Amino acid sequence: MLITGESIERIFLWGHSASAIDDAFDKKVLIFGGFGGPGRHARRNDLLILDLEFSRLEVVDVQGMPLSRVGHTSLIVGKHMYVIGGRADPLNILNDVWAFSLNKKEWKLLQCSGCLFPPRHRHAAAAVGSKIYIFGGIQADVILSSLHVLDTEAMTWTEHQAEGEHPCPRHSHSMVPYGTQLYIFGGYDGEKPLGDLFSFDTETLLWKKETIHGKLPSPRFSHSMFVYKNFIGIIGGCPVTQSQYELSLLDMRSHQWKHIVVNSLENDLLVRSTANIIGDDLIMIGGGAACYAFGTKFSDPVKINLFPLLSLKSGELGESGEESGKSIDGSFWAIRIERKYAKLVKDVLKKIGWLDLRRKVYSLDDGIHICLPVTEFFSSIFPDKRTDSSAYFDSSKPIFESENPLKDISSSTEFKALKVLTECHATKIEDKVVKVKKASNTSLEVMKESVVSLISQRGLPLQLLDQLPSRWERLGDIVVLPRTCFKDPQWDSIGTELWSAVAKSLGARRLARQGRISPSGTRDSNLEMLIGDNGWVHHRENGILYSFDATKCMFSWGNLCEKLRMAHLDCTDEVIVDLFAGIGYFVLPFLVRANAKLVYACEWNPMAIEALRNNLEENLVADRCVVLEGDNRIVAPKGVAHRVCLGLLPSSEGSWVTAVRTLREEGGVMHIHGNVKDSEEVSWTQHVLQSIEDIARSEGRVWDISVEHMERVKWYAPRIRHLVADVRCRRRGE
């Protein structure tokens, strides 16, 4: 699933929440909180919107947000998204209720009356009407089995006492509404994963343990649950086994389980992920796990079209991922059409909703005719092959008199669409070649298939496949591969055909491979363009546009969280000096988001200066920035800054004297970046403090100096962290 806009790393999360908006105007998923994200993994309080129509990820940047948290729930009721509970840190379990207004785009902490709602996390929530039902979870070390209800109209909590066959205490379970019933599956009771299914009737207030036909889903916790048409679905969870890559569907009409293996999920870890339905698509966001031995793993977002799967029998998509070839019960119909009319008729059927998207188009009569699968509804209204269909329509005014028949259909009735099909001599036939489309392969799988073909043709060893990239980044429309991939000289024998295949598999217009950042003082990029005439890109982050030549200016994805941190500062009325401005990595967040009064931007790389000036104009902040070309030790202003940014790695120490001279007599804040061994963080902090004190004294500044905050941005290399020390300098006595 390709994502544009914000970096996909923003949704490398687990323990987050996701709520769907699926109506005629919006197809969106709202994602809140969780653990992970770009740079240093941490609990988050970001609100993200994934627009499924445009596959675009955006950050909702508003003030007064809830605390960062994991293990909470969120639900959309009316025009608000409600966030309830969660864990802010190991000692801070929450019971707060926040509402985000979808119209006003603002957060509000709600004051609720009624009974006490105990703090909890890893609970489950579902909404029926205006009421939100909360079951289970963990409070400290206690696993809960209470059912609390929040009336979002009266803002009151009530607790329902258990009656009937009720579930045992549990956490990390899932719950969904189906009509007026709530269904709960699985969870963890403190000793073992659970595999039971319970229902709760919101009208009679009775619990019931459900007895279902067919093979039951395996016991699990931290899984996802969803409702699609007449089915309740379960996917993912712990313990991670092959069955967690099955999609378990409960047919609520027959009360029968069926299980379908989804092979495209075999590389995903759907633990503490979220599942939402948008149209016929299942949207899976996040999921992952942390391990001391193997590090942290997050899953990419996944989109699965569920419609084709409903016709499959249990297990029909086997381990090989191929259709079994078994017949599908019931009659299926298709429209046979001459090839010359195929595109028009297909567009007509698709536009009206009569094309059966779960089945494949195929040809007959050596390609003379094309067969288009149609829906059951269409087959009931279109005359069969034994009837003279022209008798149904007035053909005195041919539809083809219009220059664009499809344009007429978009604003006309189904009658005109049927008339188009009749004039194209469409014939309804029984579909004897029923083939369901396979789920789409991942980009990596498509790449592997293409590359296997290329190296086999040239007799190259299959061991080369170990050098295929498992991850890549996007800068605008450039896909950037890591510098460690395709490094064996044997790849050169394939030539440009290799890069064309890789670019096609990734849906990339331009392709590049990352190189090491030049150790020169100008920090030049060594990005190698593999496909494309130039490296000039337009990249948007946090609502800020960065334009630059990626082959000449470096860009760091890992610094996103630090740029966001700077953007969330209140710099109103502040003068800021950025001693290493580059293309505007921190200059732009200070100006666009933090509302700085004025920023002095020091930079000596001519290509970066060109990009910086362009970015200031594009973001409409050029009037509040002074670009100073040259060595910051020479060109930086003195005694003007409330805040100084020193964003140079591995060390900015060469400009610490300049930074002290740049601050006002009253002092200010320095954001000092550096790469530091994890075992030397304390000594580095002491070195920073002592050095700034010594420099200030030598410059005649009488300051009290302290480190207000230490930001651990990311791991730069094994056991080496990128740190930012926020050093506060205050005139003594103030």
Q: What is the residue-mean pLDDT, rounded to a whole number?
A: 84
Q: Low-confidence parts, pLDDT < 50 over ≥5 residues?
A: 314-330, 385-412
Radius of gyration: 30 Å
Q: Give the number of helices.
A: 12
The strand count comes to: 49
The rough form would be described as globular
Query: How widely separated are the two ends?
Result: 55 Å
* Helix proportion range: 10-25%
Q: The biggest beta sheet, please? A: 7 strands, mixed
Can you describe what's shown?
Its EC number is 2.5.1.114. Keywords: Methyltransferase, S-adenosyl-L-methionine, Transferase, tRNA processing. The chain has 734 residues and is of the alpha+beta class. Helix content is 16%, strand content 34%. The chain contains 12 helices and 49 strands. The strands form 13 sheets. A 7-stranded mixed β-sheet has the order 45-44-43-46-47-49-48, sandwiched between helices. It has a 5-stranded mixed β-sheet with strand order 1-8-7-4-3, with no helix packed on it. Helix 1 runs antiparallel to helix 4, helix 5 (443-457) runs antiparallel to helix 6 (496-506) and helix 11 crosses helix 12. The longest helix has 18 residues, at 681-698. The protein is globular, with a radius of gyration of 30 Å. Mean pLDDT is 84; it is low at 314-330 and 385-412.
Please outline what is shown here.
This protein is α+β, with helices and mostly antiparallel strands and 734 residues long.
Q: How are the secondary structure elements laid out?
A:
Blueprint: E1 4-5, E2 13-14, E3 17-22, E4 27-32, E5 35-36, E6 42-43, E7 47-51, E8 56-59, E9 73-77, E10 80-89, E11 92-101, E12 106-109, E13 113-114, E14 124-128, E15 131-135, E16 138-139, E17 142-143, E18 147-151, E19 156-160, E20 174-178, E21 181-185, E22 197-201, E23 206-209, E24 224-228, E25 231-235, E26 246-251, E27 256-261, E28 274-278, E29 281-285, E30 288-291, E31 295-298, E32 302-305, E33 333-338, H1 342-352, E34 362-364, E35 369-374, H2 376-381, H3 405-410, H4 414-423, E36 427-430, H5 443-457, E37 473-475, E38 478-481, H6 496-506, E39 510-513, E40 528-531, E41 536-541, E42 544-549, H7 560-567, E43 575-578, H8 587-593, E44 598-603, H9 606-618, E45 625-629, H10 632-635, E46 643-646, H11 656-662, E47 667-677, H12 681-698, E48 703-717, E49 720-731
Parallel strand pairs: 1-8, 13-19, 38-39, 43-44, 43-46, 44-45, 46-47
Antiparallel strand pairs: 2-5, 3-4, 4-7, 5-6, 7-8, 9-10, 10-11, 11-12, 14-15, 15-18, 16-17, 18-19, 20-21, 21-22, 22-23, 24-25, 25-26, 26-27, 28-29, 29-32, 30-31, 33-35, 33-36, 34-35, 37-38, 39-40, 41-42, 47-49, 48-49
Helix pairs in contact: 1-4, 5-6, 7-8, 11-12
